[in-house]
Amino acid sequence: MLDLPFLAVVALVAIVSGATASVAGFGIGSMLTPLLALRFGMDTAVAAVAIPHAFATGVRCWRLRHAIDRGVLRGFGAMSAAGGLAGALLYSRVGSETLTVVLGILLIATAIAALTNWAARVRLGHAGSMALGALSGLFGGVAGNQGGLRAAALLGFGLTPAAFVATSTAVGVVVDAARTPVYLWRAGASLAPLAAPLIVATLGVLAGTIIGERILLGLSRERFRAVIGALIGALGLWLLIRTA
Fold first, then answer.
1. What is the pTM of this model?
2. pLDDT tens across 92-111, in order?
3. How many domains are contained in the chain?
4. Which domain range does residue 212 map to?
């Protein structure tokens, strides 16, 4: 029997998360994972959310493909994919709560840097970029949250709003390609009861993706940086509160 109230909540959160991801380059995993974890457990939720995340990220990447910074994507994306694969192999063996707390603290620190404009004066070197790329992928693979840290790293590249979201999305596609097959291999049977929520979530994030694109096109570079900083900070606080 379908739980219609729960499906309605999933649809609402999926739409909001899809719209947020279109503006910030992250948000789907951060919002949907804790929601599904309340009903199905964290390990199953991490694997399940990878499916709507992959669909929405793929569509968003295709629609923004002309704005992708391929120079950033090549190095940063490759290391993120390696981190994502490693995290996916470890996700059921490492305490995701501890990692979530660490990620929350990192995101809050990043938000402060972005909102005070300190991040705008920082340019990552090659080694720093690669390290943060791998780290964001690792968190994504283990705990289902990668976009916030990836956005924090990409702030240092001085990308335009469209290039920022497009490049972040392209990196997300690469990470999804690395981690999703591992999730399906390890959690395939446990995902069968989630067919209805996953269909609703997928349709919701796709609808939110279209809505969010309209918001993105109206943001200036300064306003965009402020929005990203605020969203990263809110995500960090939410992660800490959720694990308290």
1. 0.75
2. 565 556 666 766 776 676 67
3. 1
4. 4-243
